[in-house]
Amino acid sequence: MSPKNASRSRKLFVMKGFQSERSLQGHPNIISLLDNFYDGKHLSLVMDVAEHGNLNSYMETHGVLSEIAVKHIARQLLSGIQACHAKYIIHRDIKLENILITAMNGDMPTVQIADFGLLTNAHPLSHCCGIPFCMAPEVVSGNLYAIYCLLTDEIPQAGFLDELDFSGMTKAANDFILAMLQENPHKRATANTLLTLTWFMDQSELTEFV
């Protein structure tokens, strides 16, 4: 492919992502795209400002978050993922750097999913996108792996389930992680299922630890 055609193809790809992301506007946990400009060489996207940075930089400063804070964030992320999947949109690159913090209420962040540059419409995927450490085995369900990083400050590795240390976590959080990180995609819970688990049903303070 010539550089000119490659540039045009990339522009069309980005514009497809822009249009898909625009279709999700209005959801509180997906970044708002306000406009776009193309000068013949560069495509610029205008979006809301995330004054508090991203979750990766936040954790570098504050360390591992409390389980209550992670549950608060996880509920927002799963709500955003639900909205994507309802429109047959798969992000394919959800990682801490792409989760932006738009507001803070004490130590409880309000977050939005950003950077839809690798999105696709829902269909079986066989090629890899994004950062390998942030992807599930078959790519698509990698949408959920970032939540594990929030709870543990660790990157999930292949075959790691038998070595997980759940000390300091509630039983409900333990069950949530196991449902979310099943290596067999047919056993792995969807965003819809995860939101019905006990971890999200209990609104009281977390006291029942493993």
TrEMBL record:
GO annotation, biological process: regulation of autophagy
Entry keyword set: Kinase, Transferase
Residue span(s) of domain Protein kinase: 1-200
PROSITE patterns documented for this protein: PROTEIN_KINASE_DOM, PROTEIN_KINASE_ST
Cellular component terms per the entry's GO annotation: cytoplasm
InterPro entries: Atg1-like (IPR045269), Kinase-like_dom_sf (IPR011009), Prot_kinase_dom (IPR000719), Ser/Thr_kinase_AS (IPR008271)
GO-annotated molecular function: ATP binding; protein serine/threonine kinase activity
SMART domains in the record: S_TKc
UniProt-recorded name of the protein: Myosin light chain kinase
Species of provenance: Thraustotheca clavata
